[in-house]
Amino acid sequence: xxxxxxxxxxxxxxxxxxxxxxxxxxxxxxxxxxxxxxxxxxxxxxxxxxxxxxxxxxxxxxxxxxxxxxxxxxxxxxxxxxxxxxxxxxxxxxxxxxxxxxxxxxxxxxxxxxxxxxxxxxxxxxxxxxxxxxxxxxxxxxxxxxxxxxxxxxxxxxxxxxxxxxxxxxxxxxxxxxxxxxxxxxxxxxxxxxxxxxxxxxxxxxxxxxxxxxxxxxxxxxxxxxxxxxxxxxxxxxxxxxxxxxxxxxxxxxxxxxxxxxxxxxxxxxxxxxxxxxxxxxxxxxxxxxxxxxxxxxxxxxxxxxxxxxxxxxxxxxxxxxxxxxxxxxxxxxxxxxxxxxxxxxxxxxxxxxxxxxxxxxxxxxxxxxxxxxxxxxxxxxxxxxxxxxxxxxxxxxxxxxxx
Length: 404
Ligand SMILES: NC(=O)c1ccc[n+]([C@@H]2O[C@H](COP(=O)([O-])OP(=O)(O)OC[C@H]3O[C@@H](n4cnc5c(N)ncnc54)[C@H](O)[C@@H]3O)[C@@H](O)[C@H]2O)c1
Description:
Blueprint: E1 4-8, E2 15-20, H1 27-30, H2 32-35, E3 39-45, H3 49-61, E4 66-72, H4 81-93, E5 101-106, H5 108-120, E6 126-131, H6 134-140, E7 145-150, E8 153-160, E9 165-169, H7 178-195, H8 197-211, H9 215-235, H10 250-259, H11 268-285, H12 291-304, H13 321-329, E10 334-335, E11 338-339, E12 341-344, E13 350-353, H14 358-369, H15 381-384, H16 388-400
Parallel strand pairs: 2-9, 3-4, 3-5, 5-6, 6-9
Antiparallel strand pairs: 1-2, 7-8, 10-11, 12-13
Helix pairs in contact: 4-5, 6-7, 6-9, 7-8, 7-11, 8-9, 10-11, 10-13, 11-12, 11-14, 13-14
The structure holds nicotinamide-adenine-dinucleotide.
The site of nicotinamide-adenine-dinucleotide has 29 residues, from helix 5, helix 6 and helix 7.
C-alpha cells in the first residue's frame, strides 16, 4: 500500500502527515533530519508501549544520539498537571536540550499532554505525533491543539503548537477496541456532515468496511479527514472563526461528557455522535434543514453502532435539561455571553451561529433525553425516541460498565 501525504501549509511551520500501513517500521525514513545526532524522547501510554518500543528500536538504529521512553498510565486522567510535571522533570533529568525531539506515540490523550509539554519545556521543543487511535489519526494529531484537563473542566489549559510531522500507521488500529474505533468514526463522519456531502455518501456506502478495518477504506477516510482538517486549520489556525465548525455537535457533546462525570463510561466520540444529531435537530427546529437529513444521519450512526440519543446512555448520566444548559453556559464556546452553536443547512453545509433561541436548545435536550412523560418536545413520540433496539443495546452497555 502506498503512503499518502497530506501537507499542512502554515507559513514557516508547514509539516506533513504520512498515512499508510506499517509506517512505524519505516519511521526514520519520514523524519531523518529530526533524528540525526539528536536526543529523542518518546512519551506513550501503557496500552501502546509495544508500538512505542518498535519506534524506539528504529530510532536507535538511525542516526539519533540517544532515545529514552516514558509510559503513562492510560486514560483521560493522564491529561493532568501532575503528568506535565512528571514528564517535564523526566525530560530535564534525561538531559533534554532545545534541539532535542519529542515523539508522542498513542491516542489523543498522549498526543495532547505530550504536545503541551513540548510547547512549554525550555519554551518549546519540536515534537512528532504518532497517533494510534482512529480519533487521533483523523482529528487530535492534526492542527496543533494541545491541552490538559483541570479540576474545573476538560482541555482548559493548553496551547496551539504544531508538530514537526504526523505519522499515522493505520495498522495500529488492528489492536484498538471496536468501541474506541467507532468513537473515532464519529469524528470521521463529522467531516462529511460539516463540509463534504460526497464524503458522507461515500461513508454511507463504505462506513461498515471502514469499521471492519478494510485497509483501503481506512486509508481513504483518514486521508480525506486529515485533508479536511488541514484546510480548516490553514484558514484559521487559532480558532478565531471558521475552525469552530470542527466543533459541530461538540457543545452538546461536552455537556453530556460533563454530565457523565468523565468517569470513562461515555467515550468522547459517542457523545459527539449524539451531539451531532442534536445539532441537526436544532437546525431542523430553526427551519434551516430538512428533517429527512437528520433522520438519514441518525440511521447511519445507528447502523454503524453509535448512540444517537441521550436517552440511550441514560444510565451513565445524572442530568436534566437545566443541568445541561448550565454546563453549556460554562463552555469555552460561549462568546460575549452568547452560546455559540454550529448549525447546518443540510448534510455537508454547516456554519457558525450565535443567535440561537434558548427555547429551541431546551427542546432539543428534552427530546434527546426522552421528553416529558415520554413525549418529545416536538410532539412525535416514536421518532423522537429513535430506534428502540439500538436504545436497548446502548442502555445495556452503559448499565454493565461500572464507573472507573
Ligand atoms: N487536540 C485536539 O485537537 C483534539 C481533538 C479531539 C480530541 N482530543 C482529545 O483526544 C482525547 C481522546 O483521544 P482518544 O480517543 O485517542 O483516547 P485515548 O488516547 O485515551 O485512547 C483510547 C484508549 O485506547 C488505547 N489505545 C490507543 N491506541 C491503541 C491501539 N492502537 N491499540 C489498542 N489500544 C489503544 C489507549 O491507551 C486508551 O486506553 C481526549 O482527551 C480529547 O480531548 C484532542
